[in-house]
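User: For my dataset I need records formatted as: sequence, then structure tokens, nothing else. Please produce one.
Assistant:
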Amino acid sequence: MQKTIFDVRGMDCPSEENMIRMKLDGLSSIHHLEFDLPSRMLTVYHDQHIDEIENALRALHLGEKRLSTQQAAEYTIEQNKDQRKLLIVVLLINFIFFLIEMTTGLLSRSMGLVADSLDMLADAFVYGISLFAVGGSIFLKKKIARLAGYFQIVLASIGFLEVIRRWFFGIALPDFSTMIIVSVFALLANAICLYLLQRSKGKQEAHMQASMIFTSNDIIINAGVIVAGVLVLVLNSNIPDLIIGSIVFALVVRGAVRILKLGK
């Protein structure tokens, strides 16, 4: 068996990882895939058919470059139940805070909280695609990806329309205290998730790294909503809330477009 390392410049988030997994799914020559998202490296354990693998990667247009190919010892894939349970916990936390932030965002008239809730839901979708479809057919994975992507785009589009309506027609100021309090709890929850993921024995593995990237981004967004809440209080204006809401909605749409690529 051989081990080939690729530098994939366009692989900067778990959406591209899933694209690669589904593109290579079904190639009998592949034994195992390892992803290093921060370094944008892909390691493939395979038999002799490297040309077939390279052609499949080239079709994704992610800027792949083969760095090395060498002999490798037989690779045995072991199921790590602890890692799977930890990822499920992260998924549940994201989904629970989606419900909390969506509810409190609507009640407090905060687009920042509503948008952050959709970002939480987007993360839960990606985790769900990976976990729910494990061992499933490529058709199932693509179908789930398409449904998740379209659903996110619809929700984000509704959010953008509401931001525009509030920008031009005005609405009562959002409740800054609810914005700040809920976002602080969301930030603490994400910080706990990040701490647990970083302490995991398998933190170098692909899905664990993906989870850490998502959770780190969530913490930044949570901090942004907190700052927006403070600015709403200081400026007595809903513009900071609309700005942070628009930014997060844009991030949700960007993630949804990447997920839709999985269904192609």
